[in-house]
Amino acid sequence: MHARTIRLASLAVALLACAGARAERVGEVDTAFKLIGPDHKVVVDVYDDPKVKGVSCYVSRAVTGGVSGALGLAEDKAEAAIACKQVGAVSIAAPLPKQEEVFSERQSILFKRLRVVRMVDAKRHTLVYLTYSDKLVEGSPENAVAAVPLDASVALTVKP
Hints:
By secondary structure, the chain is mainly β.
């Protein structure tokens, strides 16, 4: 039994390490009053790129309020906006994949996630961040993109 507990704990730690960045709430504005439950709002969250020190992405999105929102049963809209910026000295410790999901957050109780994918444009020495929301059944064409050009002194290598 003890060995099983250690294996489960190791698995939990590994999963947490793979979970990627966590959102930090920058702010929010109410967009519609709800008599019962929280108001509808637009929130702005910031994510620090876990593999690129000095780059952060700000994502704004609608959050449904009311009773269903309070209970976590509401499905938020698929729309989101993104702005990624250099917020400090940029350093990249290891070669980056050409494309990699760096953030993911649940948006509804059933299958919908907000995702942010980093793409490397090595020719232009630029990191491109795409945000979109997907759904298991329908998918979603709603998306937004931001680009962070890197200084020529920053080593940018792509995994083969």
